[in-house]
Automatic annotation (TrEMBL):
Name this polypeptide is given: Heat shock cognate 70 kDa protein
PANTHER family listed in its UniProt record: HEAT SHOCK PROTEIN 70KDA (PTHR19375)
Keywords tagged on the record: ATP-binding, Nucleotide-binding
Residues spanning the signal sequence: none
Superkingdom to which the source organism belongs: Eukaryota
Organism: Arachis hypogaea (Peanut)
Family in the record: Belongs to the heat shock protein 70 family.
Length: 458
């Protein structure tokens, strides 16, 4: 199984129907505004090869949202005219919503639409007129959100919008004049392609994808279809968790596949017997808030803290992910394979995860800073304790200095060992780190000074 998002499917339909013999490279942007979601994709088409550059979406933006704005406005108008509030009556609201949907469609080719509903609520007939200007004003912020999604796609793709050759409109709400006007302004001098059926393009493209997955089996001997290649991107970032539940991304979202990336990680304690390698997809900085795809335990030989483990993420052209862990001392290697359908999200769920990550970005950044400060303190404690242990430290310092440094270590250790990062704020970890470093540097300075004086006496 392979997941294909709607605008990518529409791009296949567009390429096959409108650019079947395309030799020169063309950048195609697909804008798919349906009833419940907005999905966009940027692809490069050359010959029979379709390479996805980036995708973006908004799961809370579509034709239904435009309808709801009209429903809310007209319900208030009804209450103002007739002193009756229909908001608690589902039947009345459903009838009003149906008429609003019809009005929205009429406003795509007329400047105004009439709404007439007999006995809408409490036996009262309702009549109103919705102008295109009023409709656009009611949904102005939603139209801007459409363009924010478009801009995000180009930011992810790192492609200049002026390098786009074709803009393809898909989905019933792409017919809305205001939407087309905003897109026309965003792509000055470019013609919007409205010639493919916006309601059928996605199904057509998905059928082509199914044909490709089935290796061309199904009774169609078309040379064009047999030579078709779709090069997709990773819909979500792929990575593993590191100390403090942080997500360490190896393959970022919208990376063209196939893709392969290696990372070096280190054990957290002396003589650590095993390393847990967990595999996540998602955009949250906190690993546990992402979607876990799999995990495995990897045995490591006894070694001091900081023993290196090499982890590799490899995604093939079918979206199958292989994750391996290796340590060089004994040459041991272990691997896990995650199929495309194993615990993976639909295109709509992917868009929702990206939205949530964006909304919680500030909160996640604060969490990341806390974890980094805590880890820095923990690392300092480890190094100081190691220096004391390895260097016959206590034979060179006074009893008072010994007491001071042990107290500083104890305080830092207690803060590090608090359950949950939230127990300490970033500034507390940083303050404790500075105090430990200050005491350590002062005492180490004394030792070095005494050592240099001894050399001079000789």
């Amino acid at each position: 199984m392979r997941i294909i998002n709607e605008p990518t499917a529409a791009a296949l339909a567009y390429g096959l129907q409108k650019k079947p013999n395309c030799v020169e490279k063309r950048n195609v942007f697909v804008f798919d505004l349906g009833g419940g979601t907005l999905d966009v994709s940027l692809l490069t088409i050359k010959g029979g090869t379709y390479q996805v550059k980036a995708t973006a979406g908004d799961t809370h933006l579509g034709g239904e949202d435009f309808d709801n704005r009209m429903v809310s406005y007209l319900a208030k108008e009804f209450k103002k005219k007739h002193k009756e509030d229909m908001n608690g009556n589902s039947k009345a609201l459903r009838r009003l919503r149906n008429e609003c949907e019809k009005a929205k469609r009429i406003l795509s080719y007329n400047n105004e639409a009439t709404i007439d509903i007999d006995a809408l609520f409490q036996g009262i007939d309702f009549h109103s007129t919705m102008t295109r200007a009023r409709f656009e004003k009611l949904n102005d912020d939603l139209f801007e959100k459409c363009m924010d999604t478009v801009k995000r796609c180009f930011d992810d793709a790192r492609v200049d919008k002026n390098h786009v050759h074709d803009i393809v409109l898909v989905g019933g709400s792409s017919r809305i004049p205001k939407v087309q006007k905003l897109l026309q302004s965003f792509f000055p001098g470019k013609e919007l392609c409205k010639s493919i059926n916006p309601d059928e393009a996605v199904a057509y493209g998905a059928a082509v994808q199914a044909y490709m997955i089935n290796n061309g089996q199904g009774g169609n001997d078309s040379k064009t279809l047999k030579n078709l290649v779709l090069m997709d991107v990773t819909p979500l970032s792929l990575g593993t968790s590191i100390k403090g539940d942080l997500m360490s991304v190896l393959i970022p979202r919208n990376t063209p596949i196939p893709a392969k990336k290696k990372g070096t990680y280190f054990t957290d304690s002396d003589d650590q017997p095993t390393v847990c390698v967990d595999v996540y997809e998602g955009e949250r900085l906190r690993a546990s808030e992402n979607n876990m795809l799999g995990l495995f335990s990897f045995d490591v030989p006894p070694a001091p803290r900081g023993f290196p483990i090499y982890i590799c993420f490899d995604v093939n052209e079918d979206g199958i992910l292989s994750v391996s862990a290796e340590e060089k001392l004994t040459g041991k290697k272990q691997e896990i394979t995650i199929n495309n359908g194993t615990g993976r999200f639909s295109a709509k769920e992917v868009a929702k995860m990206i939205e949530e990550a964006e909304m919680l970005k500030d909160e996640d950044e604060k969490y990341k800073e806390r974890v980094k400060a805590k880890n820095a303190l923990d690392e300092c404690v480890y190094k100081v304790k190691k220096a004391i242990k390895d260097g016959n430290f206590f034979s060179k310092v006074s009893a008072m200095d010994k007491q001071r440094i042990m107290a500083a270590i104890r305080e830092a250790r207690e803060m590090v060992n608090n359950d949950g990062v939230e127990q300490g704020e970033t500034y507390q970890y940083k303050k404790c780190l500075m105090e430990l470093q200050s005491v350590t540097n002062e005492i180490m300075g004394k030792i070095n000074s005494d050592y240099e004086e001894g050399d001079n006496e000789d």
